[in-house]
């Protein structure tokens, strides 16, 4: 119970962020729809608003590969560099 209560108290002190963005859904065969989406979240990694917590930031590379869940996503997966990144860290022999 103590841990649950401590986490909830910390969550109350963190700000909530709201992001409104457009999300593309690709159906395949060159067809795609764009939907407006809102995302409400607490960024647990951003504790800079808590005055009693000493925070700092470290620069790290942003390279990562997107998940390829549908063949309709193949074009964007190739264009955004995900293929090159995944190929560089995997051995497909």
How much helicity do the residues have? 25-40%
Kindly state the number of beta strands. Answer: 2
Strand content: 25-35%
The low-confidence parts are none
What is the global morphology? extended
Largest sheet: 2 strands, antiparallel
pLDDT average, as an integer? 84
> How far apart, in Å, are the first and last alpha carbons?
51 Å
Specify the structural class: alpha+beta
Describe the protein.
- The mean pLDDT is 84.
- This protein folds into 2 domains: 1-54, no CATH class; 58-93, no CATH class.
- It is an alpha+beta fold.
- It has a two-stranded antiparallel ribbon.
- It has 3 helices and 2 strands; from the N terminus they run H-E-E-H-H.
In short:
With 93 residues, the chain is α+β, with helices and mostly antiparallel strands.
Secondary structure blueprint with pairings:
Elements: H1 2-13, E1 16-28, E2 31-42, H2 74-79, H3 82-89
Antiparallel strand pairs: 1-2
Keywords:
2 strands, 93 residues, 2 domains, alpha+beta, two-stranded antiparallel sheet
């Amino acid at each position: 119970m103590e841990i649950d209560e401590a986490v909830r108290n910390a969550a109350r002190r963190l700000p909530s962020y709201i992001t409104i963005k457009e999300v593309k859904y690709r159906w395949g065969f060159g067809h795609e729809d764009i939907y407006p989406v809102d995302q409400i979240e607490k960024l647990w990694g951003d504790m800079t608003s808590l005055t009693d917590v000493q925070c700092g930031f470290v620069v790290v590379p942003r390279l990562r590969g997107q998940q390829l869940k549908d063949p309709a996503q193949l074009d964007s997966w190739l264009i955004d560099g995900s293929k090159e990144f995944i190929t560089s860290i995997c051995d497909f022999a």
